[in-house]
Amino acid sequence: MPHDNAREPLLGSHQHGSSNHEASSTGGFAYTIEDLSPLTDPTNPTTPRQMGGIDKILKGLKVDPKTGLHSDEAGSHSTGKDSDSKFSARSKAFGRNILPTAKSATFFDLVKRAYNDRTLILLSIAAFVSLGVSIYEDYGPHHNPDEPRVGWIEGAAILAAVAAVVFTNAINDYQKERQFRKLNAKKDDRSVKLLRDGREQEINVKDIQVGDIMLMEPGDLLAVDGVVITSHGITCDESSATGESDAMKKDAEENCYVISGSKVLDGSGKMLVTAVGSNSFFGKTMMAMREATPDETPLQVKLDLLAESIAKLGMAAAIAMLITLVVKYFVQNALSNDDLPPGNVIFSDMVKIVIQAITIVVVAVPEGLPMAVTLALAYATTQMLRDNNLVRVLSACETMGNATTVCSDKTGTLTQNKMTIVEGTLSLLPFTRMEDAKKWKTDVKPEVAQTIIDGIALNSSAFEDKDEKGNLTFIGSKTESALLGFIKFLGASYSNIRGDNNVVKMYPFSSAKKTMSCVVATPNGDEKYRLYVKGASEIVLRACTHYVDAEGHVKTLDDHARAKFEQIISTYADKALRTICLSYRDVSESEFKKFKDDEAPNTKLTCLGVVGIQDPLRPGVVESVASFAEAGVTVRMITGDNLQTAKAIAKNAGILMKGGLAMTGPEFRALSKEEQTQAVKRLQVLARSSPTDKTIVVRRLQELGEVIAVTGDGTNDGPALKMADVGFSMGITGTEVAKEASAIVLMDDNFSSILKALMWGRAVNDSVRKFLQFQLTVNITAVVLSFISAIASEDNQSVLSAVQLLWVNLIMDTLAALALATEPPSPDVLKRQPTDRNAPLINFNMWKMIIGQAIFQIILNLSLLHFGAQLFHLQSTDEDGNVYVSPHNLKVLRTMIFNTFVFLQVFNELNCRRIDDSLNIFKNLHNNKIFILVQAVVVGGQYVIVTFGGQAFKTVPLNGNQWLTTLLIGSLSLPVGLFLRLLPSYLIPESVLSHKSEEHQPLISPSMMRLQGATRSIQNQNRFFDNVRRGNKRKAQHGNSAENLWKKYGSTDNSNDV
């Protein structure tokens, strides 16, 4: 990749704290932290030669490469035995290999954070006002002795609800953080091998100093940055840090930088430590994770706006009621024949009017809404853990429901980060999947299969061992590990084969020759020795003179057969498979004696076949990508791998489509901001990307209004994970940096689990909106009923008493939150587009249901108030034939109205299970047992209140017919809901309710992208043929220009066109 000298270092040169990072006092060293930093910048490393050579660097750091650091470096002034005191000057200049302890939030901090919510603060104010007024009313001079002093319950209950929400959130956050810390516990007692005082020593990883000479061996997980000073075939896996899946060869000249977080796969050597702690690649990334502060989620923003709107409307209704009742009071007194009441009576009456107005505000505030949000999130996160999603940030769950783009890493996220044979043609018998390899083994000649298995097992330096997590895995080259995994899948044991055979000569893999060879003694064979060769297909095939056919016969490799093998290799290469050719040759004893030790005799070989190796997709990825597409969520691959491999993987996964854009990080970075904004709309694959590229992509998408989820497992994914609206990290293969940066940890490392997170996120948003639809219907009905009935009545009293409103407005709301917030997601949530970030929380269908149901319930309850006595046969006739309602029957009527009101809400809650125009409101009801249980509790509680509420609830027991009557009237909410759903939208003017779609509109629709891709394809082909025709006239001047033109214009894959 070309160097861009103007580009900043990958993670900048962050300085955190003063004790570890002060470079002003160099302690007599020739270099500072900033001087050494360019040596290990993965995007543009500076070689030691550019700094005057490794010897100059060693001298500047006061270290002898033969003996390492000396523990008496601090001189006689140091009496301490720990590494820090021995190397105090070095630690002061370059820092220690520890990260500053992150300040964890205390439980009190979490409580304050949970309470910092506008709706909760508004509720608290309303509760304290209600408490003050109700206490005055209960214990004031005008309190009716027959009335129970229960006015304080309303305010106290609201405060209890606020406290429940705050502490539920705080406890949930505290538990999630503890669970995450337990998951991500570091092994601080890990030891490493260093050269100190002229001998090898094992020291704690925290005691490594800049200038230490560290020994490198296979399997080492490097905790510091450095440069290689001696290398014996060192190969490192840097995939977790840079995203590059290929093993990186290290030497002491050009490719000498080593970054923390990488793993030594093969070889041995020594490295000079140049950066530790928060100055290392790993440390800089970890510290960057602690700096970002999360923004408000889309739902939080909408809820804040709603709370403000409700407060304003509630205040407006209260002021209107206050003015109306005050005017009514004085008008009535003025029109009456009596004198005006004395001042103390007027004051007392005014206080009652104010209390009525304040009650309107309290009723208008949806106190159940925060509880519904909390319950929905708490329930979802608990259930998501069962789906292997550990939610670290509670709000990330609902944010994921609005996600419009998933920016995914390739290595370890979409793929398994394990090279595997995915196709092969051995002995001219093909298999197209790993699962078909066993059938291939049964079809091929046994002796041919054994030759192939022996060659793979013996001509290899990889081996099987336990990794740092205790799991068996192959250690060594990823290509060799794939081949050994192949024969293990076939049932062979590489260790038994190696034990039974004697390898007399080994020619290790050479990057120059791209082959690896070994000679094995075969005392029972036709010849005394056998040569096995494997390597790059074109090179090995060129050295072959024979091949093994499908019948197991060795035949001459003529031009026709060679063309056939070349076609196989070309087919695999087109799929971005790494092709390996396997071959052998039987060698006589006399010929063996002529073999040189430094040059493999790769001639006159017999080709056994070709295999294609690839880092395969994780199971379920293809289906998940398709489901994301159906849900209107765009999946984009951002990887450090090369462009050809990335495009092949993206096509296999269904990410890269016709008309989509695939490009490299340097190409994207070179664009202007405006060009980046245009390119990112069609960007589906970004290869060879650095962490900076990923964060730029996320930023550009967010500027376009996208809600971004970023997935990744490597250290290099950290900054983008933190910047994204939702960051997903891998719990098994993910680095500590990735987990620290993420909002959700995928415990099973399965990309498909992200789809479950999307479903739960949408379920949470739906649950909040369902509850809101129910809550606002209740509140609007209660406010209007209280308003109208208070104004219409002679004593300014509402048809629903304060305690009855407490039951309706608090207990039922809380129970409704529990019922509607705990509904598990159905596959239907993936069959719609994401909700736009700026879409209103209450859409057209919800407003239609809220307003329609509220109007129906208000008219019904007011009608029952005026005509109920006659309808329910509660009227009596006196001796003079006058019709009247006895005091007891009046209580029965008010109890029936209260009962009807409650049953209207019970049945309307069924309507609220759907927030669209779907007619089947009972769908999947059996799956939500909590909903059924809550309805049973509400009906049971209503029975207890009506039957035994008495004076406190102003109710009297009802008989069976009266219960049945109120139940049937309440059930009218169902047909009214059906009517409202069937009501055509065009009947409601746009000026009354906005019909604007709430669906997020994609930056470019998939159909438009395919159309543009097909159009460009035709245009490019026409251009190609036009140029071919012109090129024929200039053929003499331009040589084979047609071939060049085809390469430039003729590809039907236009995904590289911006």
Automatic annotation (TrEMBL):
Domain spans labelled P-type ATPase A: 189-288
PROSITE patterns given in the database record: ATPASE_E1_E2
SUPFAM superfamilies with a match to the protein in the record: Calcium ATPase, transduction domain A, Calcium ATPase, transmembrane domain M, HAD-like, Metal cation-transporting ATPase, ATP-binding domain N
The protein's name in its UniProt record: Calcium-transporting ATPase
Gene Ontology molecular function: any one: ATP hydrolysis activity
Domain Cation-transporting P-type ATPase C-terminal intervals: 798-982
Location(s), subcellular: Endomembrane system; Membrane
Transmembrane segments: 120-139, 151-172, 310-331, 351-380, 854-872, 892-910, 930-951, 963-983
GO CC annotations on file: endomembrane system; plasma membrane
Function per UniProt: Catalyzes the hydrolysis of ATP coupled with the transport of calcium.
Keyword Amino-acid biosynthesis included in the entry's annotation: no
Chief localisation class: membrane
UniProt entry keywords in alphabetical sequence: ATP-binding, Calcium, Calcium transport, Ion transport, Magnesium, Membrane, Metal-binding, Nucleotide-binding, Translocase, Transmembrane, Transmembrane helix, Transport
Record-listed E.C. numbers: 7.2.2.10
Biased amino acid composition, Polar residues: 15-27
Family (UniProt): Belongs to the cation transport ATPase (P-type) (TC 3.A.3) family.
Catalytic activities: Ca(2+)(in) + ATP + H2O = Ca(2+)(out) + ADP + phosphate + H(+)
InterPro entries the record matches: ATPase_P-typ_cation-transptr_C (IPR006068), ATPase_P-typ_cation-transptr_N (IPR004014), ATPase_P-typ_cyto_dom_N (IPR023299), ATPase_P-typ_P_site (IPR018303), ATPase_P-typ_TM_dom_sf (IPR023298), ATPase_P-typ_transduc_dom_A_sf (IPR008250), ATPase_P-type_domA (IPR059000), HAD-like_sf (IPR036412)
CDD domains linked to this entry: P-type_ATPase_Ca_PMCA-like (cd02081)
Region annotation (Disordered) ranges: 1-27, 65-87, 1029-1058
Residues in Cation-transporting P-type ATPase N-terminal domain copies: 52-130
GO biological process: intracellular calcium ion homeostasis
One Pfam family linked to the record: Cation_ATPase_C
